[in-house]
Amino acid sequence: MNRAELFAQIQQKSSFLCVGLDPDLEKIPAHLLSEPDPIFSFCKAIIEETADFAVAYKPNIAFFEALGAKGWETLAKVAELIPKDIFTIADAKRGDIGNTSKLYAKAFFESMNFDSITVAPYMGKDSVTPFLEFENKWVILLALTSNVGSLDFQLIKGEDGKPLYQSVLEKSQEWGSPENLMYVVGATRGELIGEVRKVVPENFFLVPGVGAQGGSLADVAKFGMNSTCGLLVNSSRGIIYASGERDFAKVARKEAEKLQAEMKGLLEMYL
Ligand code: OMP
Question: Which domains does the chain have, with CATH numbers?
């Protein structure tokens, strides 16, 4: 999916919601455990109920690969199930020497046909650019993450006085463009989102951290929105585990709808 198509979908749905699929056998409703593939049944129900409000789905690969070979099969089935006009993110946080990155890219872009993959920048240019060589596929580079540990490295200032995340943003601008490169910017870093936006005015941000991690959607939009929205805001647990009962998919729908309604207002305010 290209940027124009993504923006068109955002406008059409008045939403920049990404539903995170982090399916955990210990958290999904107990009645699903007797199904042949409980994780698939769970994701299927969530996707069917939230697709009206979501412009992206982000399966977190860890939750699938933890189940071994069956988990990979389930992931492929889930990827296949997501409506084709919705942007897909393989949240895999990969990155390795060039020839290895190339095969990670093939795995997620060709074998499973994801639109994008999250990539760690730590190993530098040759670990990231193999992912950028696929037409209409995207790298979502970790820049300023939502977790407490982001303070350990990402805010350390280099000799030039710039925090590491800023160097990641600036350097990676030489590798990709707003047509194939997004950044992960955590919603929990409210005021800093504006700083990131100054450095990379055009690129989309994938923003995790609203919902269970407590980030503010209003702040994300205030500091991060650009003229093509430029935001995909993810919520995983806040939507998919809003109910642990038989009504889980309907309750997930309500949560997704609530976020979409707030996003509609924010799009009207800032676009
Ligand atoms: P919830 O906190 O349940 O909404 O889930 C957040 C999701 O986003 C999880 O799948 C995390 O792995 C992911 N995530 C973060 O929480 N923080 C980040 O900085 C980056 C990500 C990510 O790359 O998606």
Answer: 3-270 (3.20.20.70)
